[in-house]
Amino acid sequence: MLNINFVPDDYIASSESRRTNLIYLVLLAVVMAALGGSFATIRIRQRAFAAKEELVNTKIAQVQQAIKRFEQLQEKRKEMMKAALTTAQLLEPVPRSVLLASLTNSLPPGASLLRLHMVQKESKSATVGPPAPANKYQAAQADKAPTQQENSKEKLLETRIDIDGMAPSDLQVAAYIERLSSTSLLQSVALVESKEHKVQDATFRQFKLTAMLRPDVQLTKEDVDRIRAEREKASRSF
Prior knowledge:
alpha+beta, Alpha-Beta Plaits, 61% helix, 6 helices, four-stranded antiparallel sheet, 4 strands, rod-shaped, 2 domains
């Protein structure tokens, strides 16, 4: 028995074409949905990265401001240290009257002072730099050293005293040097010059001494009163 198909071929071809087009449309919709989802995911990630970047930039700006404030504080600290050093240079560790009284009390019989000059300056040890670091650890420690050096810089001041006087002989000059060396105020007492000097018919020794004021000298009120009392006693004895 023959199988006769009464559906026209054009209809069958158009149906298959519509079916194929529908499949293509479905596939296109799936692809577009996938692309849309990927695009949305990328946009979400971009926003998240933008938010993180903004947060990082904010933190960097805060760190930069903190560093700037720290540098400003360091500059102010250096200025304060300079001001403190200048103030320390202007302040006398020992009153001049007390120092003069001590120098006068130590004079041997027949000796006298002609001139006294006192100069305060920075110690040579403060101008010598530290040795070069041998390794990274020493280099890291050296970065912390300037702060300690600045804190102790005002303690590295030294006071030099130039003393000119007259004495009957070199024995009195030597005795005067010995007495000054034994005081609690002076150190490094040295003779610079001693020459003969005639006053009318008398012959004297004109001497020049240098001495350093002890950097760690601390006089109490009792010490000051004792030195001044000895000076008054010596002045009354002349």
